[in-house]
Amino acid sequence: MPYKDKERQKAYQKAYQKAYGAARRGNGAAYYKAYHAAHRAEKAAYREAHKAEKAAQHKEYQLRRKYGISYDDKMRMLAEHDGMCAICFSTEPKSKKGWAVDHDHDTGKVRGILCNSCNSRILPSLESPKRAMAEVYLARHSAL
To answer: Phi and psi (nearest 5°) for 137?
Structure first.
């Protein structure tokens, strides 16, 4: 029941804090330390147990955010090229990151899946056999 007299209420609160405040603060700190240590261990165990799942979710998110395609779309496009780079016909992505998604920077349209070496230097510094294949690849995808 609230006090009608504000001074009396303040006096009661002050006496209560003096009598019980230190004990409550001490228990709170001990509880926090114990809980925090246990909770950190639980979070670390969860992250470790779900590391691969979270990595896959992140890859999916990045593909959707950057290019508007799903991981399944990327794998389907790679299968259309028989699992090879569309320019140099390499069967290895030549990077730890995996296959690169080639897209037109002006329109944002995805053209295909390339190995990272072909994607990073699509025309400027390719030697002549790869340059000719890159020009054919670009011409084919600019017509679409």
So the answer is: -60, -45
Report the distance separating Cα 35 and Cα 52, nearest Å: 27
Q: Distances from the Cα of 133 to the Cαs of 8, 36, 71, 79, 109, in angstroms?
A: 90, 59, 26, 19, 20
pLDDT digits (tens, 9 = 90+) for 35-55: 788 888 899 999 999 999 999
Reported residue count of the chain is: 144
Could you identify the residue written with the tokens 């998604």?
101
Instruction: Evaluate whether 131 touches 143 at the Cβ level (below 8 Å).
Output: no
- Label the pairing between strands 110-114 and 100-103: antiparallel
Q: Tell me the per-residue pLDDT of 96-132, one tens digit each, with 9 for 90 and over.
A: 888 888 888 888 888 888 888 887 776 555 566 677 7
Q: Would the pLDDT of 12 be above 90?
A: no
| DSSP of 60-111 | HHHHHHHHS--HHHHHHHHHHTTTS-TTT--SS-SSTT--EEEE-TTT--EE
